[in-house]
Amino acid sequence: MTAEPDADPNGVGAPRIACRPVGIVRSRFTEVTGMPIQAAASEETARLELFGEFAPGLRDIEGFAHLIFVTHMHLCTREPLEVLPFLALPTAPSDRACDLRL
């Protein structure tokens, strides 16, 4: 992740942040059709492949219980600020995207 000091889209003195890929997630799914809607409730697996230049960052991870990585869903066609959880009742109030645990 890099910060571009000359780019201030909101006029508050904060630099624009740019991310670059450190790897790729691979699974058997190449389109949304048939993809599990909740990975935790599925027996499907995927593999995170880290690009070689970032391998040193994995040194000594064996002692950790969890790894957190941020993803960019490159096939998404929209980015709503408010979403309705997929399995929610139609009468349920919508949740904000930042409240959803993905």
From TrEMBL:
<dbReference type="InterPro" id="IPR036414">
    <property type="entry name" value="YaeB_N_sf"/>
</dbReference>
<dbReference type="InterPro" id="IPR023370">
    <property type="entry name" value="TrmO-like_N"/>
</dbReference>
<dbReference type="InterPro" id="IPR036413">
    <property type="entry name" value="YaeB-like_sf"/>
</dbReference>
<keyword id="KW-0949">S-adenosyl-L-methionine</keyword>
<comment type="similarity">
    <text>Belongs to the tRNA methyltransferase O family.</text>
</comment>
<protein>
    <recommendedName>
        <fullName>TsaA-like domain-containing protein</fullName>
    </recommendedName>
</protein>
<feature type="domain" description="TsaA-like">
    <location>
        <begin position="19"/>
        <end position="102"/>
    </location>
</feature>
